[in-house]
Amino acid sequence: MKILKVLILGGTGVISRQIVEQLLIAGQEVVIFNRGTKRLAFGEDLEWIHGDKSDRESFQKLMSGRQFDAVIDMISFNAADARSTVETFTHTAGQLIFCSSVAVYKRPLKSNPIREDAEELFDNPEFGYAFQKAEMERYLQGVISEGQLPISIIRPSLTYGVGAANLGVLRQNYNIVHRIRNGKPLMMFGDGTTPWSFTFAPDLAKAFVGAAGNKRTFGKTYHATNEEVSVWNDLYVEFGKILGIEPKIVHMPSELLMRANPGLFGHLYYEKSYSGLMDNSKIKQDIPSFEATISLNKGLQMMLDWYENEAMTVDADKDLMEDRLTELHAQWGRQIEALNIVI
């Protein structure tokens, strides 16, 4: 097997740290580029380059003359970011692999389970994250069509893992455990029955590692997710099973939550109110090693272990926000009951 020299732009995030670990296990030569604000214990078998990718001129100078078999870009969020990567490595990389997102699928969806080639790209600027990622993909598709260099695009779905700060409807993380243990209600959007497949970072990393140097992935776009069918309520129910305490869950429309805090809840309204079940046939055909095997129960146990060993901190502001939202829900219920509507 040929040893690949792989550059990771990022390298210490929830997903990218797993990519680095799996590349090292596979015996690949790994180089990490990031700002150097976080240094993980990967050992001495890799090279670190520190810099700021947003300083495009400095970034290009740092990378000048360096050759890589593959560059995995985990830190491009818009077309300008992606253009910087393309322009920097057009003549010095054998392949570029970009991390996008399933948020780029335009809602309502046309397929279920979702198939890559059946969907259109998101086009509503009101949900900035999805729109900018879709703009990035539109730019990259133009580069692909021009045949400038091999590009692969991988779209993760909602992914959890050690180091994550995105678990829960309020992205409240350890607060979920805290609230269940203390008998406090948890806020869920909608009625909690929207289908979803929750993915964990060690599984997702297999997609990026399997794409590196893989000519079958050149010029193609894939999503890479778990295929275990759950609904959103299961996220809290499963935590309750692990803790041995039945959680108290209250439900509120995603539209009202978004009005309370568009920045925090916009993704629920624009993306997660629709089914999140994916058909992974395409990626499995080109990357046979990709298979998501971590169940929701096993993944949440991993998260609980991490919380209790390293990250057992309550976010007081989010705890107060959840208290206020659930109390508003209770008041709303009492007001409706008081109407005593008779038909």
Please, what is the average pLDDT? 94
- The percent range for helix content is 40-55%
Tell me the number of strands.
Answer: 13
Classify the secondary structure makeup into a structural class: alpha/beta
Gross morphology is globular
CATH level-4 homologous superfamily: NAD(P)-binding Rossmann-like Domain
Biggest sheet, spatial arrangement of strands: 3-2-1-4-5-6-11
Largest sheet: 7 strands, parallel
Give structural notes.
- This protein has helices spanning 16-25, 56-63, 79-89, 128-146, 174-181, 201-211, 233-243, 254-260, 262-272, 281-286, 296-310, 316-339, and strands at 5-9, 29-34, 46-50, 70-73, 96-99, 151-156, 159-160, 186-189, 195-196, 199-200, 221-224, 230-231, 249-252.
- It has 343 residues and is α/β, with parallel strands linked by helices.
- It has a single domain (5-336), classed as NAD(P)-binding Rossmann-like Domain (Rossmann fold).
- The strands form four sheets. The protein has a seven-stranded parallel sheet with strand order 3-2-1-4-5-6-11, sandwiched between helices. Strands 7-10 form a two-stranded parallel sheet.
- The radius of gyration is 21 Å and the shape is globular.
- InterPro entries: Epimerase_deHydtase, NAD(P)-bd_dom_sf.
- This is NAD-dependent epimerase/dehydratase family protein.
